[in-house]
Specification:
With 417 residues, the chain is α/β, with parallel strands linked by helices. 25% of the residues lie in helices and 22% in strands. It is built from 11 helices and 13 strands. The strands form 3 sheets. The protein has a 7-stranded mixed beta sheet with strand order 2-1-3-7-6-4-5. Strands 10-9-8-11 form a 4-stranded parallel beta sheet. Helix 1 crosses helix 2 and helix 7 crosses helix 8. The longest helix is centred in the C-terminal third of the chain and has 24 residues. It is globular. The N terminus is likely disordered.
């Protein structure tokens, strides 16, 4: 006899409106990490701050929120609609036995209102709360420290220049948990002991660790470690971390400082000091001076995840590695997903774009190892030449400064008219 699958519960996810392309891969990766699976039946409007998800349990939902930096809050969804009438009808159809545990006479509660792209007056908020009197609330209102918090959430669309009178979507639910948005501030590069010109900002560092499904006791490696920003986010999630970099001064914390009004780096400005700053030193294995274009590791399984931000050659001085024969001449071609290097041992999971300026962007590419490396796989990347013109950061450097030069020349010409 087959056991019935557990019924999926419907949850409403409230997301931050930044790094929009990075959000879905992060949520998908974290659901997988918690033992769940992202379903194609989820009600996702990719650019919207409101997503409806089907999650098997509240425990899994809370596990998701203990990791995400893209989401603000999660709610058990009791009702939703495209008008107040539809919302109220949806709430009346929600099973009473699922409501009652949170509406008992010996409990306390409050109702919070959140609107996206519109501000309501206090009188308007009170009117909306009073309209929910048909719900069987038996407890007492406690605005400061309630046991249960319920939210009315209203979506007034994405256009701040054309805000409708009535919302496009309305939701009501029980608050479950907040995400980890506070990590962005507490791990801010502005407050970090040791930084460089290209230190990865905290938000993206945590997003990358989540895309990589970093978990406690993993070993995480960054081959272009710099000042260790990606090691910090991985260590925060309980992974042991290490890295390499070709820059001797960066690895040892020597040379000129990147911080304003500071000429030279201090005696204790290094990667280890950064992890110590956040109480994560016990997770730090080491960092080596090494050229990542050359093999330095023995064969075999060494790392659970490799997370890195490769050099582009724009803001930090670069050192060209390899012989002249290996350097491929750059040609001007538009980006397509087909130019991503392929390998039989790797499966492409996600490919997210972050715009840097009007003419440049960078991509967060996540790949999963799907089989063990064998000798016949060693030169697989050479079989497909379509991405060869893009190899190396020097190609990007030349294109970047070419674009900057052309723009400056055009602005100077326009000013002379």
């Amino acid at each position: 006899m087959e056991l019935a699958a557990p019924a999926l519960r419907r949850y409403l996810l409230l997301l931050a409106q930044e790094h929009l392309e990075f959000r879905l891969p992060e949520i998908t990766s974290l659901l997988s990490l918690c033992g769940g699976k992202f379903s194609g039946e989820q009600e996702i409007r990719v650019n919207s701050p409101f997503w409806i998800l089907n999650i098997p349990s509240e425990e899994m939902a809370r596990g998701l929120m203990k990791r995400t930096v893209c989401a603000k809050s999660l709610f058990e969804l009791w009702g939703h609609g495209r008008s107040e009438g539809e919302l109220y009808a949806s709430l009346k159809n929600y099973p009473v036995d699922k409501m009652l545990p949170y509406l008992q006479s010996d409990s306390t509660y409050k109702v919070h209102i959140h609107t996206f792209n519109k501000t309501l007056t206090q009188a308007q908020k009170i009117k909306k709360i009073d309209a929910l009197e048909f719900l069987p609330f038996k407890g007492k209102v406690n605005l400061k420290n309630p046991e249960h918090i319920f939210w009315i959430l209203e979506d007034y669309g994405m256009n701040p220049n054309n805000v409708p009178e009535e919302p496009f979507h309305l939701y009501f639910g029980r608050w479950i948990a907040d995400g980890q948005r506070e990590l962005i501030e507490s791990y801010s590069v502005k407050k970090r002991h040791f930084i460089g010109n290209t230190s990865m900002d905290a938000c993206l560092s945590f997003i990358m660790a989540n895309h990589g499904r970093v978990k406690p006791n993993d070993i995480v490696y960054d081959p272009f470690v710099g000042t260790g920003g990606l090691l910090i986010s991985s260590a925060h999630f309980g992974a042991y971390v290490c890295g390499t970099d070709i820059d001797y001064n960066t690895i040892h914390g020597l040379g000129k400082a990147s911080r304003k009004n500071q000429k030279w780096r201090g005696p204790d400005e290094n990667i280890r000091a950064n992890l110590r700053q956040y109480g994560l030193e016990k997770y730090y294995l080491d960092a080596l001076v090494a050229d990542s274009s050359r093999p330095i590791w023995r064969k075999g399984m060494l790392f659970d995840a490799i997370i890195t931000d490769p050099p582009y050659g724009i803001r930090e001085a670069t050192r060209r590695t390899g012989s002249q024969k290996e350097t491929v001449k750059s040609v001007e071609r538009r980006y397509t997903e087909e130019i991503i290097p392929r390998h039989p041992c790797l499966k492409l999971i996600s490919n997210c774009e972050q715009m840097l300026s009007s003419h440049t962007s960078r991509r967060l590419i996540t790949m999963e190892k799907v089989k063990e490396f064998k000798d016949q796989d060693e030169n697989s990347y050479l079989l497909d030449g379509q991405y060869m013109p893009y190899r190396g950061h020097n190609s990007f450097r030349e294109k970047y400064f070419s674009g900057v030069t052309k723009r400056i020349a055009k602005e100077e010409k326009d000013n002379q008219k």
